[in-house]
Design brief:
The protein has 138 residues and is an alpha+beta fold. It has 5 helices and 4 strands; from the N terminus they run H-H-H-E-H-E-H-E-E.
Amino acid sequence: MTYTKRFSSQWIPSGPAGTQITLQEMRRLALEDHQSPEVQTLAAEVQDAFGLDAWLRSVWVFVPDPEDAEYVKSPTFQFHESLEHYQHTGQLIFQGDCDDASTLAASILRALGYPAWFTAIRMPQNPEFEHVYTTVDM
């Protein structure tokens, strides 16, 4: 199977408007990729929603975005990035920040037939959202 990396960029404003755009892009990527062969492969490995958290914790390395940029990787891109790492090291590793992990988790959950959504959180004194995670309705 040949995979061609595709990139897109867009300007994202700061504050709640930027958070909304980022969450919309995460949703688009998760929904777009949940039926891909790559995400279906990961879903088969995870098997069910209960195993997803443990699986992600076993393969995930947190790597923050640069200070002046916001990256969101598609689940298919993450799969191929991990596959490249595996071919060089023999170790299956996924890497990125919380929005990447959340996008991958949501896509896998959708592939398993579970509805999933994103929850963005911030500290009370900070107007900027600082973290996002995936929630599943079981």
